[in-house]
Amino acid sequence: MKLILSFITAFIFFFQNDLESLRNSYAKANQSNENTQAFISNAEKQSGSDAVTTGYKAAAKIMEAKIVKQNRKALVKSGATDLESIIKSNPNNIELHLIRLSVQENIPKIVGYRGGLKDDKAFILSNYGKQNTAMKSYIKKFAVQSKTMSDTEKASLK
Description:
Elements: H1 2-28, H2 33-45, H3 51-67, H4 72-89, H5 94-106, H6 117-127, H7 133-145, H8 151-155
């Protein structure tokens, strides 16, 4: 029994480290093309099939369009379709809303993938207090650089 419990604990710890690595590389992805490529590579290496990992993989597809010369439209469409599907299946997952909000903030307006900005921002602000300390910290880091959140909204994230 102890062996099984140890195995489960090790698996969860390993998975958390992968997810934490993915979050960290995602947070830096828009700073440069090198960081974008590092995030995409990190996302491709992930073997997890949980909603959050899949959400980051969808974001990686969308961001790949930023650094490639061909199939940009197909990458954005595929990634956006995947992300929308994941959010539809997991409508109460704040991290998925955060991913979509950040993608839509940073994608050129001409692409037209901006429909969830207001809804995602409202969802994040209204559900922020229900999150654990680590998720609150992650949301605050995003909010600092957010183009969508006002200074008042950023200050409300305590």
